[in-house]
User: Fold this.
Amino acid sequence: MTYRYVVYDLQKNFNASFDDADFTFNQILYWVQVVANKLRVQHNRITNSDLFTSTFSSINVMIDSKGRPYIDLPTQIMDLPNNSGIVYITYNVETCKCSGPTFSQVWFQGTEIGKIQNLYLDEYTKPSSKNPYFYRIGDKVDGVSVNRIYLLGLECINIEDVEIAVKSSLDPSAVCNIDDNISLPDELIGDLTTQVLQLGRFIMMMPSESINDGQDGSEIDYKSQYYASRGAQLPDSTDTTE
Amino acid sequence: MNSNDFVSIDHLIAEVTVTVNDAEFKGGFSKGWYQSRIQDALQELSFDTFWLKVTHDFVIPENCRIPMPPNVFNLREIYLYSGELCNPVNTQNVYWKRLFDNSYSGTGYTSKVKDDGSNNADIYQPNQRVLTHNMQGFYGPKFYYNISDDLPKMIMLSRDCLSFPYLRIRFNGMGVPNGDLPIVPRFFERAVVDYVKMKFYDAMKSRDPRVYRALWVDAKDDVENLTTGSWNKAKKRIKSMDTAEKESMEEYISSMYHK
Assistant:
């Protein structure tokens, strides 16, 4: 199902319901991407299939100012438990010129930056070039925004690039071609349409009282204003209805 | 039973990680953690069954003190021999002597009862040197050893052992040194897999007790149940004699040559 088909369909639906609404094509396209991202994560949680997996066969390894090797994530990834948005990272056999079969197909294990010290305490878990690890720094390094994967255990060898597979998410601001397929299984397009329509409906149905028109037209309801006071809740003494 | 078949670490890890749903090493622990637990399992099996026997040959040093090799825990046999290193010609058994200590330089030693039978003037004991003298039996070389109490652990040999150039010792080993990949006999495959599985759930209990405690109890039963548990089965298997050994033993004990 292409973006063009779905977005025009949604736009037509919106115009049918709210004929004076001014939803632009790009705005709906953006909503489609936002909702599609959410559906992808939900769907992945159910199936855990590789439908949303992308591979990148040659990502350059760089060294930061502290001498630590890292790679920049080639795309934004799903933030899944235990970094499972990263499916695998391996040494790249084709371009890395690894010196024999020992280093080929070496597989990086995921870890977290806070657990690294513990890894060094056991001979079997200690990071090394044969037993390397990766950890993610997703926010900032020394105040600079980054989206990095650091590689641990490669300190003593020189490695040019790695292969990586990730479960990627969509960038809502970048749709290159509206004739591309929406990367969702077709059975989820129905959910996508419903959720985008709800978004639009929510915006259009916003009650008028919530709109600040600069006038104080409200009437003070003294009774409910003081409802917390028990005195105000009591029936009037002059009330003789009972 | 004896066998020269072993299973690889990866073979075991492949089974365990799928069983505990951690094939990607993301739900639980790193691959090294599993290797470490396999090593633990073999170590425990070694202490329980003495399955691994290791032979070491040494040139006897001047000071009669040999550091205990790493990764061994139980001394089984100790021989002096002449000939070439690792190729014995004349051999002599070495016996253990209580409280013998030749720290630190070797040939001199202390012991509550000396090897000539004297007892350092213990007034409540007969002087054994005199007795032994009378019996005319104490002369000749005396080959004995003890293990030092201080660290590092030393095998201490009596001075007379220097009349032989080489020493052979048979130990029980503890699997492999920490950090080396363990060697797992096939008899132990089930026990090791179950042990690692149990340790996984044990460790995961602190993350989610409600889920993992039940699994841990099941896994513990798989290992430790006295009749069906894999640990006990492994112990029985490795301790049982080969059929040939058993038949030879029967023939020997019965002294009846009709079997």
